[in-house]
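During the reporting period, our protein records have gained a structure token line. A sample record is set out beneath this paragraph:
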Amino acid sequence: MSSSRSAFACDHEWSNGRGNNPPFGCTHPLRKQIESLLELIQQSAYAALDEYEKHGTATPPLDSLLPHAFDNFEANTVGLKKAIRQLEGACDQLCSTLAPPAHTIANRAQDHYWACLRFAAKTRIADSIAEHPEGIHVRELAEIVQIDKGKLSTILRLLATKHCFREVDTDIFANNRLSVVLRSSNPMCSFVELMTNSSQRAAHNLYAMLADPEYAFSTDPRKSSFMHLLKDKGHQGTAYDVFRGDPESRSILGKAMVGMNGVIGTLSILKVYPWDKVRTVCDVGSGVGAFVWPLLESYPHVHATLFDLPETIDLAKELCAKDRPDVLKSDHVTFTVGDFFQEMPVKGADIYYMRNIVHNWSDERAANLLRNVRQAMGPDSRLLIHDYIMKPLCRNPGTGEGAAGHDTAPEPLLPNFGAGQMRIYNQDLTMLVIYNAKERTLDELVGICQTAELMLEELWDLGETTVVEFVPKI
């Protein structure tokens, strides 16, 4: 190639992958992209530092065991989440760009981190190590958990290499900021158990399920990969039935949801939505009140209704009587029993709030429950759907990615922030293999709501989850 050729021609040729070396007189087109990624990494890292300092302290080092405001996700995490999603997306894209392709694929295919996390959570290694702040020798720890010390070393070194636990001296391990999350008292321990047990087994069965015509084209929750895995063991119904029929699984699921809601920062909605203008709220599929109690603490003028199945409401009342007797006696909370697939008995609330509900169901069933909510709404009611919203991976204005409030990643990142939003796509697969359901794009969610006579009003991008507000179609 002649050096007289235009820069555009050079860039075009290189962007299409032709040639082995940059032509004389041309700048490698990847250099500008790499420099942009490095700039994004620096910007987002400093933004994350600023978020920590806004909440009282500098960023805690990995070896620190001191608590911080963000550890319990009680503070407004939106700023930090947005900084971290850009940082993770840019770092992953940078490594994927510069490393040989086989290197990247091999790393991802050979990642056994999840299996070691499961072992650590099941054996309560973090609990045992906590009794030895300066560290404990793997030989002594092996006696406590009853495992060969060489095998235990293999597991701990893999975890510590990615900063979960730390090796303070040869074969001596201590806790750090990541490993303390695996303490048995932390709900994240149950989340690890859920994600590394049922979800991993169902995901491993994904190919077998999709090769079975009876299951491959069905959206029936009884035809998920998880239920396909159990069909020869006589299990029928849905994953909900399996968990409901097993007290241990039900307990793990309940604690795991508390952990997950903390991680994804769902309570950030209390900081960004104008609740001061709201008088009545119905939490649809409320569970035991994970949203309602913080709502009432922050906005005591609100009257909240918990709406769920009878067994869930009974448990919510029991826990409320134990932990919040004053609230139970007040006129600020109501417990209502029902099935949102049958009817919504709570009429005319200012806000109907649905968190992690719509993603549990197929389009048909989701539309059904949304129609029931719509029929209960008054002319001035609002529906808030708080869920994961999957962003497009292409920069196409026709896909809905440009909706007001919906963040799009800066170039050269993927528009959906790539690995910075990876948990959404992992959760999408989890919903598929366990419940035969899915996360949705904004267009998909709006399409379902339109069938229920609901119109998009506004949305709030909270850095991981999104709150989408709908109003009745008049």
User: Anything to note?
Assistant: The domain at 125-183 is CATH 1.10.10.10 (Arc Repressor Mutant, subunit A). Confidence is low (pLDDT under 50) at residues 1-19. The CA atoms of residues 128 and 443 lie 49 Å apart.
